């Protein structure tokens, strides 16, 4: 695994975390959207990550060598909807209220989204730190040759 592989892996992590931040921002923006094109409230979305070019764990057990451990980074494999139920809020004056005065609200919890945003931000920063470390190691290796 070369220094550029490490940079590419970290760059894939940064790209995946950026997509995660985009989805989190979309969730926060739609936290009060009671009607979408389907007629239902907005449903929270989540990002699913997957290792690029992953092999089953048994492959690594039976073919162990450091050459077999070359990871390729991470990718977004899917953006899925959270199937938790919508919240019911009593608000009889709301245009989307039912006959009993209840409005179905999105299943988005802003506090949870903020925690996810902090997590995505920290992961992004960790990938930046890994890239910077890889660059520093490459520069030190070049200095040896002087």
TrEMBL record:
What are the subcellular locations of this protein?
Answer: Bacterial flagellum basal body
- Stretches assigned to the Flagellar basal body rod protein N-terminal domain: 7-35
In its UniProt record, which GO terms are filed under biological process? bacterial-type flagellum-dependent swarming motility
Flagellar basal-body/hook protein C-terminal domain residues are: 100-143
User: Which domain of life does the protein's organism represent?
Assistant: Bacteria
Q: Does the keyword Transmembrane apply?
A: no
Keywords attached to this Swiss-Prot or TrEMBL record, sorted alphabetically, are: Bacterial flagellum, Cell projection, Cilium, Flagellum
The record's Gene Ontology cellular component field reads: bacterial-type flagellum basal body, rod
Q: Subunit structure, per the record?
A: The basal body constitutes a major portion of the flagellar organelle and consists of four rings (L,P,S, and M) mounted on a central rod. The rod consists of about 26 subunits of FlgG in the distal portion, and FlgB, FlgC and FlgF are thought to build up the proximal portion of the rod with about 6 subunits each.
Q: Which family does it belong to?
A: Belongs to the flagella basal body rod proteins family.
NCBIfam families cross-referenced by the UniProt entry: FlgC
The name under which this protein is listed is Flagellar basal-body rod protein FlgC
Q: Which organism is it from?
A: Caloranaerobacter azorensis DSM 13643
